[in-house]
């Protein structure tokens, strides 16, 4: 029988997390250099997501329904 040390599993999880985090930073590095102009992703999805994030505080500030933007 092979016994596994509990620390080995945790260490492997931390290493995997760091690898994925490093990959995410590399993939989105252009966005972090100039976030006002660039975004991560292709097509219209990033633009729509940015619009959705901005709509909620705008609607609350204007006294509008934040769950309906009228563009559909």
Give an account of the 3D structure.
The longest helix is centred in the first third of the chain and has 22 residues, at 6-27. This protein starts with 5 loop residues before the first helix and ends in a 10-residue tail after the last helix. The protein has 72 residues and is mainly alpha-helical. The mean pLDDT is 84. The protein is elongated. 62% of the residues lie in helices and 0% in strands. The chain has helices at 6-27, 29-33, 45-62.
Hey, roughly how much beta strand do the residues contain? under 5%
Shape: elongated
Low-confidence stretches: none
Order of helices and strands: HHH
In round numbers, the mean pLDDT is 84
> What is the helix fraction of residues, given as a range?
55-70%
Describe the structure concisely:
The protein has helices spanning about 5-25, 30-35, 45-60. The chain is mostly helical and about 70 residues long.
Question: Could you outline the blueprint of secondary structure elements for this entry?
Answer:
Blueprint: H1 6-27, H2 29-33, H3 45-62
Descriptive terms for the model:
single chain; 72 residues; 62% helix; elongated
């Amino acid at each position: 029988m092979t016994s596994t040390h509990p620390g080995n599993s945790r260490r492997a999880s931390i290493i995997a997390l760091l690898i994925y985090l490093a990959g995410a930073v590399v993939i989105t590095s252009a966005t972090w250099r100039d976030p006002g102009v660039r975004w991560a992703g292709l097509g219209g999805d990033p633009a729509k997501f940015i619009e959705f994030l901005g709509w909620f505080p705008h609607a609350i500030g204007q006294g509008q329904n934040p769950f309906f933007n009228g563009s559909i």
